[in-house]
Write a structure and sequence with these properties.
The protein contains 14 helices and eleven strands. It is an alpha/beta fold. Strands 4, 5, 6, 7, 8, 9, 10 and 11 form an eight-stranded mixed sheet that branches. Strands 1-3-2 form a three-stranded antiparallel sheet. Strand 8, helix 13 and strand 9 form a beta-alpha-beta unit.
């Protein structure tokens, strides 16, 4: 987090122009140059031919990526760095490109942030309801993020003895899958919009957990939750809604839980001042651009909503995600 002494003309201008670097990365991923290069050493002309782009412009992009240390240039041939090969090539199981492409789609709305602040309303369509390509990048971007976090996170949450978990608004079901991998006797149901089913079933098949994890189409805002569970997991869904709908979602979740059931809310959680951590504060602006009333919430706000829904024994878990997400857990008496 910046302090007042950090800001100089140089740091102000660096921050102002930092989107140049982001957009260069986005272009490299969008045009798939890292996958084309793979483990080879290719000329700019060869890469331009493979991705059907202008050779001169392609070499300018590649040189900028080399300046960012994402590719290496030797004798006018380009190779991937180890990080690019691991995270930016589609051939890698650790590919992060979907989330980067989701960020690419957000650039236009971030450029209209003053309009969102003037009007108090969204300036882009929700990714959950947008065109197929953007929806894929959003959902599989959530998979990219969750896959990095979930293996460590599930080690810190004791679900021993629990039988059926509901992953509410779970997208492709990454967290549900990892909870089940950690707990072989656990079943999980992923509830999300019907358009999410193909992505969830692809990921479930990839992890070979079809005997434990199933998908249920539905809208948690407008539909009742069917079935009973002893764990409900809500990851990164409350920030998309205003307080009224958050309360409605939490009441539905509580009604779906057996007595003694656990409810876990994972989200970007602000300090009481709302000025830190940095990422949750910025994320509130992201929600302003894309939702009618979404925002990041403080720990006390989330705890009060949970308490009003009838949840007891609330506590903040020690877990802190790479973008400063946190978890609040409670029990339904």
């Amino acid at each position: 987090m910046n302090t007042p002494s950090d800001w100089t003309p140089g740091t102000l201008l660096e921050t102002s122009g930092s989107y140049w670097r982001a957009c260069t990365l986005h272009a490299g991923v969008k045009l798939d140059v890292f996958s084309v290069i793979g483990g080879l050493a290719l000329t700019g002309d060869e890469i331009a031919s493979a991705i059907d782009t202008d050779p001169r412009a392609t070499k300018m992009l590649l040189d900028a990526l080399a300046a960012m240390a994402l590719v290496l240039k030797t004798d006018n041939r380009y190779t991937n760095t180890a990080a690019a090969l691991k995270y930016l090539s589609q051939d890698s199981p650790d590919y992060l490109g979907y989330m980067i492409l989701h960020h690419h789609h957000l650039v236009a709305s971030w450029s209209r942030l003053p309009v969102a602040i003037e009007t108090g309303g969204p300036v882009r369509e929700s990714a959950s309801f947008s065109d197929e390509e953007r929806r894929e990048h959003f959902l599989m971007g959530m998979f990219n993020n969750a896959r990095l976090i979930a293996p460590k996170m599930v080690q810190e949450i004791d679900l021993s003895g629990r039988k059926h978990l509901l992953d509410l608004g779970g997208g492709p079901g990454t967290y549900a899958i990892h909870f089940c991998l950690k707990n072989p006797d656990l079943r999980a149901t992923v509830l999300d919009l019907p358009t999410t089913r193909p992505f969830a079933e692809k990921v479930i098949e990839q992890y070979q957990v079809g005997n434990q994890v199933s998908f249920q189409g539905g809208n948690y805002l407008t539909d009742d939750i069917t079935g009973t569970y002893d764990v409900v997991w809500l990851s990164h869904i409350l920030h998309a809604e205003g307080p009224k709908d958050c309360r409605r979602i939490l009441r539905k979740a509580v009604l779906a839980l057996d007595r003694g059931g656990l409810i876990l809310v994972h989200d970007f959680i602000l300090a009481e001042s709302r000025t830190e951590p940095l990422f949750p504060a910025l994320f509130s602006l992201n929600m302003l651009q894309g939702t009618d009333s979404g925002q990041s919430y403080s720990e006390s706000e989330l705890s009060e909503m949970l308490s009003s829904a009838g949840v007891e024994q609330l506590r903040r878990l020690p877990f802190v995600g790479p973008t400063e997400s946190g978890i609040i857990m409670g029990v339904v008496p």
